[in-house]
Amino acid sequence: MRSLTFFPDDDSAIWLARKDATLAVAILELCGHSATNVLEIGVFRGAWSLTVAVNAPTATVFGIDPYPGGEFLQQARMQALRSFAERDMSDRLCLLPTWDDFLGAAGRPESFHLVHVDGRHDENHATVDLENADTVLAPDGVMIVDDFRHVGYPGVASATYRFLERRDYRVLVVTECKAYLCRTALHPAWSRRLKRALGNQSVVPCFSTWSQAEGQSVDNPALPSVLGAEVLLCIEPSGPLQAPLTRTATLRRIARDWLPPVAVRALWRARERWRNRRLTP
Description:
With 281 residues, the protein is α/β, with parallel strands linked by helices. The chain has ten helices and eleven strands.
C-alpha cells in the first residue's frame, strides 16, 4: 500500500480526518482498476476531493454542489477550483450544481467506484442523495456517508438506516463520523481486503476492546452487526500510511470533534477576516 503523500494543512480540511482520507485512498487502490471514477456530493472547499485526487493519480473526480448564494460559499467554490488548478489538475475535476445537471452531463462515467455523500444534512436531502448515489455506484464500489455518527445530524443516521433497509447494502466500516457502505454480496470480501491492507491495528471489529474488558477472548470477541453483517471500526492508521500530525492539524481536529459546527464556522470566518486584514496594505 502506498503512503499517503498529501493531506491539506489549511482550513479547507477542517472537517476531514486523516484516517478517512487514508481509508478512501485505500479503497480506490483495492478496487484494482487502472482508472477510477469518484463522486462527491457536497464539495465545499474541495479538501476530500483534492486529497483523493492527489493520492490516487488515476482517479477522476466529479462533484455536485450548488453553493447556494452568499459570498462565503462562493469563496469556498473558488477555493475548490483553485486548489485543483494550482496543481495542474483542473481536467480531473468536473463540478456541477445539481443532481439533474450531473445525471444529464454528456460524457460522464456510467458508474463510480467511490461515492462520498456529504450534502445537506437533513433527512430528506440525505435520502435523495443516497438513492441517487445508488444508481451510479459501481457493483464493487463503496459509498461513504458523512456525519453518520455526528450528534448534531440525527437525520443523516435515520436516512442511512432506512436506505439500508430498502436497498441491498451493509455497513462495512465506521469512523468517528463516517459510515462506509458496500453491497451485501461483497461485504465479506471488502472486510477481508481492508483488514489485510490496513492491518489489524488499524481496522478492528467494533467494541472489541469492550469484549476484552469483559474477559472474552481477543480472537473471538462478541462482534456487533447491522442487518447481520459485521461492522469494523477504523482507528488511527499506523505505519507508512500515516503522515505527521502538525500543530495546525491537531487544533483543527480538536475543533472538529468538540465544537458545534456553527461555532467552528464562526471561528474560521473570524480567522479568515483576520488573515485578510493582515494582507491588506
